[in-house]
What does this fold into?
Amino acid sequence: MEKILEVKDLKVAFKNDDKENMAVDGVSFDVYKGDTLCIVGESGSGKSVTSLSAMQLVASPPGRYAGGEILFEGKNVLKLTSYEMGHIRGKEIAMIFQEPMTALNPVHKIGAQISEALCIHKGMSKKEAWKRSIEMLKMVGVPDAQRCASSYPHQLSGGMRQRVMIAMAFSCDPKLLIADEPTTALDVTIQAQILDIIRRYKEEHGMTVMFITHDLGVVAEIATRVIVMYTGKIVEEAVCSELFANPLHPYTKGLLSCIPRIDQRQSELDIIKGQVPSSENMPNGCRFNPRCPYCMDICRQKAPELVDLGNRKVACHLVNMEKEVGK
Ligand code: SF4
It folds into this structure.
């Protein structure tokens, strides 16, 4: 399959007082054309920082790209000037966020905000762009698109604002959509509708999707491939169906066991014991070792490498040992 995005040994650091902490620490993965890649993990796993980096949107300071590269169609986006990035953002790569109010301009009408990208990237006149904005709003299921285009963001509900963000993201036919927790703040019915809009547009336009979420229910709905991140590193990568059928990394197993299941009677939900460690208290060896029920001596001494097992990649000493024994 053809690659659209290649992330190679990406390192992103954040300065806190005088110390620098690595929020993303040597992450490498590929996004293939037409794929829906989900990146999952708890807060602090580095999934959002990874996705923001692909748009060169990590604020500097306090953030800093400390190493690696992100190739979009062969071009390293981390080396592009802001002028060059302006041609990619919105046109080639579009992004939708969890809270549209932070992305929409509160003092401009919705129609004007969607039109802006169409005028810049598609060379449309203001009149053409306004007309197209209304069509885009209709396409994402906004009931009174005309009125919505003439409204300000604060006059819309959260679900409607998210539809506006999606209309804006789709307006220039991006090759890659990065969706950073776009359904987290929405109720389940709206969430299902938003996922459906993204899925439909992807199928009709051959778009590639990189979806960031902590919700494995959403992953099961939308993903073709999944990357599981923990404390700035990838711990497991697999095809979605294989990950759900047979999770290998103890952290992935923990995340999956936290989901309530309709076919099992449980008085209490499982949890992953402990907390994600702060950067000041990062454990030696495997970063998951204080929370891992299978922790061995080697886990406290040596960080496991992400090993390619053929159909998936896993970073765990135990999994590697089991594979060696099974050979
Ligand atoms: Fe658990 Fe050790 Fe595997 Fe880390 S390397 S997940 S501590 S078994």
Summary: The pocket of iron/sulfur cluster is lined by residues 250, 286, 288-289, 292, 294-296, 299, 304, 316-318 (CB under 6 Å). Residues 78 and 232 are 18 Å apart (CA to CA). The chain has a mean pLDDT of 92. The radius of gyration is 21 Å.
